[in-house]
Specification:
single chain, alpha+beta, three-stranded antiparallel sheet, about 10% strand
């Protein structure tokens, strides 16, 4: 079978319930690549790449050869942990 290559944009389109309607929740949440992730976080793409390599708690992972994370995962990761707040008080 000769099917087109699966790209991030094509995956988002597949996950969308109807191509003519609005994108699915996952497609709206998706951040693909260090440029999109960095823009959402207010960081440079190089900083995002460095964090992905050096910080094991950073929620981004490799999908289809690119960094991938959802907006919700970033927001949760950025929130102070309840235990850490109690210890510093």
């Amino acid at each position: 079978m000769n099917q087109p290559k699966l790209t991030a944009a094509r995956l988002d389109a597949i996950l969308s319930p109807n191509l003519g309607e609005s994108r699915s929740a996952l497609a709206k949440e998706s951040l693909w690549g260090p440029k999109q992730i960095g823009a959402f976080m207010g960081l440079s793409p190089d900083t995002v790449r460095r964090m992905a390599k050096t910080d094991p708690t950073f929620p981004a992972r490799i999908r289809f050869g690119r960094l991938f994370v959802t907006r919700t995962e970033i927001v949760v990761w950025l929130q102070p942990r309840h235990d850490e707040v109690q210890q510093s008080a």
